[in-house]
Amino acid sequence: MPSPAISSHQPGTPAGPSQRFVDAALDLFLEHGYNGTSLAMIGDRLGVSKAAVTYHFRSKEELLAAVVGPAFTDLAQLLDEVEAVRRESARRREALHAYIDYLIRQRQVAAWLSRDVAAMTHPVVVEPAMALSGRIDALLVADRDEPLGRIWGAAITQALTGPILSEIPVSDDELRLQLEGIGETLLRGYQTARRRAAEPTD
Asked: What CATH class is the domain 12-58?
């Protein structure tokens, strides 16, 4: 199955004049990795000079931030909306389905980052990713600072991200259907574990 076109541009927002540099950077990061890509290579891909690239982005680090930034903005906005849901059970299910939709929208970027250690461990990626992952866990489990919550939070997020990072050649609709089934099953398991943990012991 051919891969859909990859772009870091956020859907629903106008693409600025610098977007073509961001898209070219992502293409080259996918082909050569972050460390294996230079600003000169990005210029060559677009048929412009390195100076034309640095006019828009002073460094490769700025380009990396521009590539991953829309994905982090997308997730932050999603979490803002879900956190406004008052009832805990409804908020948890809303978080699950919204997070699955997000992972599917960003499946190419996520899969690339999982393979590219230099990009994945760069502070431009690590710092926002850590902050957002804590918010995701807090929405999916009620006691994320306790061992039970940490176990189930890790189990749920890894079960959802694993198929994304594996780049299994299935349609978005099929992937969503299966991830929703996995997520719902794990949420029920988490609720059962919470009830058992709350039962008095002899």
From this structure: mainly alpha
